[in-house]
Fold Pentacotripeptide-repeat region of PRORP domain-containing protein.
Amino acid sequence: MNHGRLISGGGWLLRRLCTAAESPAKSPNLYRILSALKKTGGSVSETLDNHVMQGKAIKKRELERCVEELRRYRRFQHALEIIEWMEMRKINFSWDNYAVQLDLVSKTKGVVAAEEFFSGLPTPAKNKYTYGALLNCYCKELMKDKALSHFDKMDELGYVSSLAFNNMMSLYMRSGEPQKVPHLVELMKRRSIPLSSFTYHVWMNACASLGDLDGVERVYEEMKTEDKIGWQTYSNLAAIYVKVKDFEKAEMMLKELEKRVKPRQRDAYHCLLGLYAGTGNLGEVHRVWNSLKSVSPVTNFSYMVMLSTLRRLNDIEGLTKCFKEWEASCVSYDVRLAGVCVSAYLGQNMVEEAALVFEGASRRSKSPLFRIEEMFMLYFLEKRQLDAALRHLEAALSEVKGDEWHLSPEVVGAFLKYYEEETDMDGVDELCKILKAKNFDDSWIKTCINEAKASPETDPRLKEDDPQNYPAQEN
């Protein structure tokens, strides 16, 4: 085969992409092949080129679905490489594809790179999609001045939509300025810009943040008249009532939520588990879990939500049963679930049980379990058992290859705090000695220590409680 014909000009490739037929029964679909690159290595472009050279079709919509799925699972670099391959091969690259590319550039290379990408776009590509994508970048990074200036520019160009308003509202909420949200809502209404369900939810949350529960009810009533209510609305309302400890109203909203849930809407069931946990209703948690298992395939992530919920409610017996059930049936072993279990046991001073889970996870995992090692370090430092903490530190350090892992700022901070409070020794010097004994260079050590000094203390075990801290996982 003349490979030059494949890559020069793109004409032969484009015809192959558009017209060749692929038999899905004979080989894995393209998404499966691309998603496996995380484990197998290799580049996206080589994989796609090989796919084409094998005589298999790749339609544009298929590539776009791959990008959507990879973004969903926070595999941003691979998603960006697909978009770049599409652009390079001139596969009917549309203007809205540039917006997705800009978002992925921001996520993988930072906002400055996204700005440079935007500046380099051809004039027709600087449209409502790419302007909106850049506004989203500014809002996500809480760059308020740039966001406001960019929003004004979009307004001048006639590119402002409900999505742009939603971005600005979210920015104000995350910046601790909920009082600015109602003004934006009124502005949308004056301009006859439709309010989406998301807009109403942010408006509700703004009212709740201002202590205006009557306002929350008014927004809810308006949503009913506009027929904008879905299960997410009741999830949002329940969360508001849980926060103010009005558990009766919260559970009323949860019952309404359940009426609207379809069997395979796992996200809705996950919300129900977390919100019933917020009301302290363990019985309802188990009922919802059993309901989920009866109507939808239960993924690793679903098990992680349930384990985190049971840990939150201190139902160690239920957690142990759930974990064993998952271990016995899982198709792919997810060490994060073991981490939730270890954190639960350590929270109850069940060190032996935590160690057994850790040992089992170590046998089944293909990678070092640095995160779980850190949980043990924090636990033993809290209990003033330095030798045990050091054993876990040394075990973790012995498995480090290259620059794959740094001690978290929380753990470094915990070691420094221990030395400061319990000994006369200089914590930085002592930690440096330990790390240098394992042949870590000064720059690696300085990075760890500087990150610890710059970061607020947060116990990683506490983060395990909240599944929202985890990206979705393929299962």
Notes: Confidence is low (pLDDT under 50) at residues 1-26, 457-475. The first helix runs from residue 3 to 7. The radius of gyration is 26 Å. Residues 1-93 form one domain.
